[in-house]
Design brief:
Layout: E1 11-12, E2 17-19, E3 24-30, E4 36-42, E5 45-50, E6 55-61, E7 63-68, E8 75-78, E9 82-85, E10 90-95, E11 100-106
Antiparallel strand pairs: 1-3, 2-3, 3-4, 4-11, 5-10, 6-9, 6-11, 7-8, 7-10
């Protein structure tokens, strides 16, 4: 899978989405077809997120370990990979070092 390096013809909301005292930050991008994505970065640490709608998290740079709610084991993801999270669910994402950059698509 090839990740996009840029989005053209989009609207970007300037107010950041800030979570966990600034350790996870994203910006909302509205695509031309009205689809919503967020572009963000995650500092080292472990964070739990709940989902309303199903999400696809594409890792742009860095690496993370993800445990989906209800799972007993986590899985590692590196740049160029992705994972899907069901709606009305959640996941714990852990970054050991450096920054993890991502694109989140709401499916």
């Amino acid at each position: 899978m090839s990740l996009p390096i840029q989005f053209t013809g989009v609207t970007v909301l300037t107010k950041a989405n800030v979570y966990f005292d600034g350790k996870v930050v994203s910006h909302t991008v509205m695509m031309p077809d009205s689809a919503k994505k967020t572009l963000g970065l995650i500092y080292p640490g472990s964070y739990h997120f709940g989902t309303g709608a199903p999400e696809r998290m594409e890792i742009v740079a860095g690496a993370c370990r993800v445990t989906l709610d209800g799972a007993t084991a986590g899985q590692d993801y590196a740049a160029g990979t992705h994972f899907d999270v069901p709606g009305k669910s959640g996941f714990t994402i852990e970054v050991k070092s450096g920054l993890c950059e991502y694109i989140c698509s709401f499916l």
